[in-house]
Design a protein that fits this description.
It is built from 4 helices and no strands. Helix content is about 75%, strand content about 0%. It has one domain. Helix 3 packs antiparallel against helix 4. With about 110 residues, it is mainly α.
Length: about 110
């Protein structure tokens, strides 16, 4: 055990990436980023209408923030864990999946 810079690098990169995703999601939910084919949650319900875009991103906000906080804690835990950055990878993937489901449902209600 001890400090493993390779494991920590992966954990911190995933945490920073998720923070960037959260920021982009918040901007799209607020209407600062309009519906487009390049950035944001581009699934059929969010791309179907201008109303679905902010609704889907707004619905994905809570799962993304929760996932970001859990990923940050997992990154801190990775410093002292024998399993390293694996929890960060798992939480990152689960956060993205949960956010997509929430966005799909939220955009479908608009």
């Amino acid at each position: 055990m001890g400090f493993d810079s390779g494991t920590n690098t992966v954990a911190y990169i995933l945490t920073a990436t998720l923070l960037l995703v959260v920021i982009v999601n918040q901007l799209a939910a607020a209407g600062s980023i309009r519906r487009n084919g390049f950035i944001g949650i581009r699934i059929p319900p969010t791309m179907a209408s201008d109303g679905g875009w902010p609704a889907g991103h707004g619905a994905a906000s809570a799962p993304m923030w929760i996932g970001f906080v859990v990923t940050a804690f997992a990154a801190a835990f990775a410093q002292f864990s024998a399993v390293g950055g694996i929890p960060c990878i798992v939480v990152f993937a689960l956060t993205l999946a949960w956010s997509l489901v929430a966005a799909w449902r939220g955009a479908g209600r608009s």
